[in-house]
Write a structure and sequence with these properties.
The chain is mainly α. The chain contains 6 helices and no strands. Helix 4 runs antiparallel to helix 5. The longest helix is centred in the middle third of the chain and has 21 residues. The protein starts with a helix and ends with a helix.
């Protein structure tokens, strides 16, 4: 069977094909098209670079490193909320992106603060729940 015939056989019928997908709002370039690619995508690169720094710092001190990673996600939420165009940092609608980045960043920060040994943040009702569940 030739390669062309195989492709025709497995094609999606016309009525099921995606037509006219739009970019997420704010998904345009952060700088003009004549600027180099890193400049056009600076919000995404800032979040990724901060995350990478946090992961490297995690090798020395896991709490500080993970706080940096959580801060990078929270920075992504702030950039997505306030900037009109954030390039590839925009994945879905502005609201969905902001909520996702903020919830994940907050979760990382809170879980890092509560990590054992010697947590920096103690939540009393969680200790009570654990005590009652172990008995």
């Amino acid at each position: 069977m030739s390669g062309v015939a195989w492709r025709r056989r497995w094609r999606v019928p016309e009525k099921y094909r995606t037509k006219g997908t739009a970019r997420p709002e704010g998904g345009g370039r952060s700088a003009g098209g004549d600027a180099p690619a890193p400049i056009r995508q600076w919000p995404l690169l800032l979040v990724l670079a901060t995350t990478l720094v946090g992961l490297v710092v995690t090798l020395a001190d896991f709490r500080i490193g993970l706080l940096i990673v959580g801060g990078a996600l929270l920075t992504g939420a702030v950039l997505r909320a306030w900037l009109p165009a954030v390039g590839m940092l925009a994945v879905r609608s502005r609201f969905t992106d902001v909520v996702t980045y903020a919830v994940l960043g907050t979760a990382v920060v809170l879980l890092t603060l509560m990590a054992e040994p010697r947590p920096w943040l103690e939540v009393p009702f969680l200790s009570d729940i654990l005590r009652f569940s172990v008995d």
